[in-house]
Amino acid sequence: MGSGGPDGGQRATAETARVTVIGVGNTFRGDDGAGPAAVARLRARTPPDGTPAGVRTVCCDGDPARLIDLWADAALAVVVDAARARPACPGRIHRLEPGPDTTWPAHTTSSHGLGLGYAVALARTLGRLPGRLVVYAVEGADTSLGEGLTPAVAAALDPLVERVRAEISRTAAALPDGRRQ
Q1: Quick check: 2 pLDDT over 90?
Q2: Beta-sheet strands, E only, within 38-154
C-alpha cells in the first residue's frame, strides 16, 4: 500500500480541517504500516466519499517537524502508530492523551527517527500542540522489511478505526454550532 504522496492523499485542507488524523508509519516495514493502513481503512469506511467535512487524513513518516505542521491548528489531532511493548501482545491498542503536565520520553528513537515523544515535547515548547492530541498505538509483532501486516495487527484495524471515528464524533459535537469545520 503506497501513501499516495507525501501527504497520503489529504482529504481537507489545513484551513478547513478542525480534525486531523495522522497515520504514522512505513508500509514497507510490516506492522510499522499500521498507521497508514488505519487511515486507509478510515477513508474507505466513512461515507459517502471517504472522510467527513472538516477532517483531514494524512500519512506521515513520523518526522517531528512534519507532525507538528500537520497537527498545529487542529482542534483534535489523532495520531495512529505502531508500538513495541514488553511483553508484547500484537494487535493490542493503547490510547494516550497527553495532558499539560504529561512528559513522554523525548530521548527515545523509533523506526521513524526521533519519535513521537520528541515531537510532543518540541510542539509543547513551541506552543504548537493541537487543541487535543490523542495517540492510538497498536502493538506490532514484525517490523522487518516487507509489505503487509501480521494477522493480529490486521485484525485490530476495524476496532481501531471505530475508536478513531468516535473521537472525531465527540469533537465534532463539541465544536461551535455542532459543525465539523
Answers
A1: no
A2: 55-60, 76-83, 93-96, 132-139
